[in-house]
Amino acid sequence: MIYSLRHRLLATLLSATLLIWAATALTSYLETRREVRDLLDAQLAQSANVLMALVSHELLEQLGYQSSGHAEEKFVAELKHHLSGYRYEQEIVFQVWTGHKQAALRSAGAPTEPLSNILRGFSNTHIENAQWRVVTISDETGLLRIHVAEHFDVRKELIRGIVIRQLIPLLVGFPLLGLLIWFSVGRSLVPLNRLASDVATRDSSHLNPVNEIRVPKEARPLVDALNNLFVRVSQAFEREKQFTADAAHELRTPLAGLRTQAEVARRSTDDKERRKALDQLIEGVDQNTRLVSQLLTLARVDPDASLEVYGSLDLCETASSVLAGLAGDAVNKDIDLGLEEGCCGKILGSADGVRILVRNLVDNAIRYTPRGGTVSINVTTDEQHVVLQVNDSGPGIPRDQRAKVFERFYRAKDNSAPGSGLGLSIVQRIAQLHGATVALKPSALGGLGIDVTFPNSPACQRSDAGAPPVQFHSQP
User: Fold this and answer.
1) Is residue 214 part of a domain?
2) In which domain, by residue range, is 409 found?
3) 94, 168, 294, 397: most buried by Cβ count inside 10 Å?
4) What average pLDDT does the segment 421-429 reach?
């Protein structure tokens, strides 16, 4: 699934910002409502105390409980003058009740019935389809009780105004923040776009490392991985070029020889000469078939390729299977071919790859061992290694040439046995894929000894009972 990094970052950051802002707005609203309630309650209480101070000294003197309406209006006007200066004083109403439950005074807009039934403190009252917040105080004698109240709508309006003034910058800033994130992410992705353009415009032969200048830290692993890939691909191309050149060189001469033998056979009038040319032609075809097979095998076991899924593999069983397949070649040359008694060892490897390795080693040993010689195979195991040993009674390889025999198409000097010089190169490739090493040494049989040392994996347990010996003799 393809997704946009810019869109994902924008959605993630804006969602997180919106969530934080929503939580902040909710917290601000609750805190504002509490602060406004406390503030307005304090002002209500202050107004009630001012009113009590005025009423307690002047009410009986000016009104005497039976004053004229003109005196009452004058006193109410004086009270309003003392309560003035409060922003919402027009929303505040008050009542003054005597100890005989008579309304001595009330402001315009105040209900006729008592605003509260408590002696003192704050209360909420619903009167005449209106919700009131009331504070009640009484004098020390209990003769006067004062109620000061305001509509809840005043508080709601004040809270709403404060919250809206706080939210407006947030609502305006949210799309601006989105644009800022959009352009910032786009600006930050410019190096990646430049990197993509650089890679996309390259041709197949341009495998130079990517320029790492001005590459952000977060993109450095990607650039390093690309550069490593380019190096590996470049090396693979070079190997392929060399492989193709070597293969063409090695095939040119034998193919020319085949053509020569075919022309000799076609032009010859002597049956014996024609038969000899045809035999040589068949032998040349067999040699070229082997060469092509080894070339394909060499390409298959390239170090950058994977043979197959590895698993637990019994080297002795693999060797026994390979010996059975090559028994005919050993019998034809009167060679004593056998698997040592007590052979024992398991590794973690590719069954197909290890079989190719063992086959090349044994096949080389049979080819280079003179008629009537011996080829012996054994597998030994210790705590850290499993060693495949192939020994023969052939001519061996001089010490100064042992390092070169692993090169493609290299053949030891004074070597008249048929071959292409690819067998040990294939063996070394497969050994590298298995973390194994290949060592050449003199054999106790007088020829060449080859040890392939595999790491002993804990997943592969040693078998207590060794594999039964396998012998293939030239005579029954």
Assistant:
1) no
2) 311-472
3) 94
4) 75
